[in-house]
Amino acid sequence: MINPEFTEEEKEKIHYERFHHPHPRVQQKMEVIWLKSQGETHQKIAQLSGIHVNTVTKYLKEYEEGGIEKLKEVKFNKPESELINYKETIEQELRKSPPTSISQASMKIEELTGIKRSPTQVRVFLKKIGMKCRKVGVMPSKADPEIQDAFKKKS
C-alpha cells in the first residue's frame, strides 16, 4: 500500500485544486489524493470516488513520482496519421494538379507515398492540412460556347 507523507501546504493546494481546476479528471485525481491525505484506505477511496482500486493506486504513484504538478497533466491518446510525414509533398503535388475527386486524390497520395487510405480518411487529412473539397461546376449541354464568350465580352 502506498502511504505518501503530506505537508499542510500540500494539503491546502490539493484541497483547492480538487474544486478549482478546470479539468474534471484532474479534480478527480485531487479528490483521491485528498482522501488519502485524510487517512482513508484504498478501498474506501475507490468506493467514495466511484473508481477502481487500481486507479487509486495509479494516481498515488503519479503523486509520488511528480507531486501535484504530475497529477495536473492531462494526457489523451491522439494518433497521428502516417501521411503527416509527407504533408509538404502531397500539398505541393495536389496544388500543382488538383484532383477532381477524393478517389482521385487518394490514388495520387498512394502513388506518391505508398500509403493507401480510404476516401474518408483522405478527406479528413486534406481538411486537416487546409485543403477543401470543391464541387465542380458544369456547363449546360445545350449552351453554345461561342455565344457565351460573346456575352461575357459585352457584359
Supply the number of structural domains. Answer: 2
What is the general shape?
elongated
Please estimate the helix content.
Answer: 55-70%
Give the count of helical stretches.
8
- Multimeric state: single chain
Report on this model:
The structure is a single chain. The protein is mainly alpha-helical. It folds into two domains: 8-71; 82-128, no CATH class. The chain has helices at 8-20, 24-37, 42-49, 53-71, 87-96, 102-113, 119-128, 145-154. Helix 2 (24-37) crosses helix 4 and helix 6 (102-113) packs across helix 7 (119-128). The radius of gyration is 29 Å and the shape is elongated.
Features:
mainly alpha; 62% helix; elongated
In short:
The protein is an all-alpha fold.
Secondary-structure topology with pairs:
Elements: H1 8-20, H2 24-37, H3 42-49, H4 53-71, H5 87-96, H6 102-113, H7 119-128, H8 145-154
Helix pairs in contact: 1-2, 2-3, 2-4, 3-4, 6-7
